[in-house]
Design goal:
Blueprint (H helix, E strand, L loop, with lengths): L17 E9 L6 E7 L4 E7 L6 E2 L6 E8 L5 E7 L8 E3 L4 E9 L1
Parallel strand pairs: 1-8
Antiparallel strand pairs: 1-4, 2-3, 2-5, 5-7, 6-8
């Protein structure tokens, strides 16, 4: 830097968001279901299991972007609904800065 020179530094902060995945079964059961949360600007790939009584899965703080949640349905169960709290589709969740989107998967035996 030379005498009299001005240097401008611009910092850009992006607020993170979060995806939460919950599992509901009818009847209530301890069966584990496999899930995958993928996508976003960092191409995350989180595999996890949930049952009706388990604590919902939290993605942690992630960058805004488009994400997908998929469930592998075990034999003897039928997926009856997969609903996002922001009306997104589970395979195309558009996560905005600071937003938390909860996806609830419901299965019937």
């Amino acid at each position: 830097m030379a005498e009299g020179e001005t240097v401008t530094i611009t910092l850009i902060n992006t607020q993170r968001g979060q995806n939460i995945v919950d599992k509901v079964t009818d009847p209530s059961d301890e069966q584990l279901f496999d899930f995958a949360l993928t996508g976003g600007p960092d191409t995350i790939n989180q595999g996890f299991q949930l049952a009706d009584a388990t604590t919902p899965h939290e993605s942690g703080a992630i960058k805004p972007g488009t994400y997908s949640v998929a469930e592998t349905v075990p034999s003897g169960w039928v997926l009856t609904s997969a609903v996002c709290s922001d009306a997104s589709l589970p395979d195309e969740i558009i996560l905005d800065p600071g937003e938390t989107v909860t996806v609830t998967f419901t299965n019937v035996q």
